[in-house]
C-alpha cells in the first residue's frame, strides 16, 4: 500500500459542521481534500445517485446556506458557489471513496473517517463531563440547601434574642405605695 496521505486532523475537523442534527461536510471542502474540483465531485455523485440516499447526502436550503455563509469570515471570489451546496454525512463521505476511485481518495477517506471518530469520542467525553458537572451541581445545591436552612435557624435564634432584650423590663428598686 502506498504511503499514507497526511492531512492534519484539525484541518478536517474544522470542516465538519452540525446541520439538521447531523455532522456533515460541504461538497467544496471534500473536493479540496480529495484534490478535485467541486464540479467534478458533484458530477461523480450525480452519476452514482443511487449510492447517496438522503441520510448520506442532501442539499442545503437557501436559509441554511446563508446561515452557514455568515459563519465564514471572508468569502473569496469564486470559492463559494451562489447555489446551496451538497453536504455529506459520515456515511456519504465513506461512499465517496467508491465513487472517486483513486489511491489518493482512499487515503483521504481514511483520514476523514478518523476525524469523524475523533470528533465522536470528543463529543462523548464532553457529554460525560456535562453529566458529571450536572451531578456535582445538584449535590452542591443540596448541601447548600442544608446549610441555608441551618443559617436561617441561626438568624431566627438571633432575632429572638434581640427581641427579648427589647421587651420593657420592670424598673429596679422600690415602689412607693400610697
Please summarize what this structure is.
The protein has 178 residues and is α+β, with helices and mostly antiparallel strands. It has helices at 9-13, 27-34, 38-47, 62-71, 90-99, 103-166; strands at 16-19, 22-26, 57-59, 86-89.
Describe the structure in your own words:
There is one protein chain. It is built from 6 helices and 4 strands. The chain has 178 residues and is an alpha+beta fold. The chain has a domain at 9-129: Roll (Mlu1-box Binding Protein, DNA-binding Domain), CATH 3.10.260. Strands 1-2-4-3 form a 4-stranded antiparallel sheet. β1 (16-19) and β2 (22-26) form a beta hairpin. α2 crosses α3 and α5 (90-99) runs antiparallel to α6 (103-166).
Amino acid at each position: 500500500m502506498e504511503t499514507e496521505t497526511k492531512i492534519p486532523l484539525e484541518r478536517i475537523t474544522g470542516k465538519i459542521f452540525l446541520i439538521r442534527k447531523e455532522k456533515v461536510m460541504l461538497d467544496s471542502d471534500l473536493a479540496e481534500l480529495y484534490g478535485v474540483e467541486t464540479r467534478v465531485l458533484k458530477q461523480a455523485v450525480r452519476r452514482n445517485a443511487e449510492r447517496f440516499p438522503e441520510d448520506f447526502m442532501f442539499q442545503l436550503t437557501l436559509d441554511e446556506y446563508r446561515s452557514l455563509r455568515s459563519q465564514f469570515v471572508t468569502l473569496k471570489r469564486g470559492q463559494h458557489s451562489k447555489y446551496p451546496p451538497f453536504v455529506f454525512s459520515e456515511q456519504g463521505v465513506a461512499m465517496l471513496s467508491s465513487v472517486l476511485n483513486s489511491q489518493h481518495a482512499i487515503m483521504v477517506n481514511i483520514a476523514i473517517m478518523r476525524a469523524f471518530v475523533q470528533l465522536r469520542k470528543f463529543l462523548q467525553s464532553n457529554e460525560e463531563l456535562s453529566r458529571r458537572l450536572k451531578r456535582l451541581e445538584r449535590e452542591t445545591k443540596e448541601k447548600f440547601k442544608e446549610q441555608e436552612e441551618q443559617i436561617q435557624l441561626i438568624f431566627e435564634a438571633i432575632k429572638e434574642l434581640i427581641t427579648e432584650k427589647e421587651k420593657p423590663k420592670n424598673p429596679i428598686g422600690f415602689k412607693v405605695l400610697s
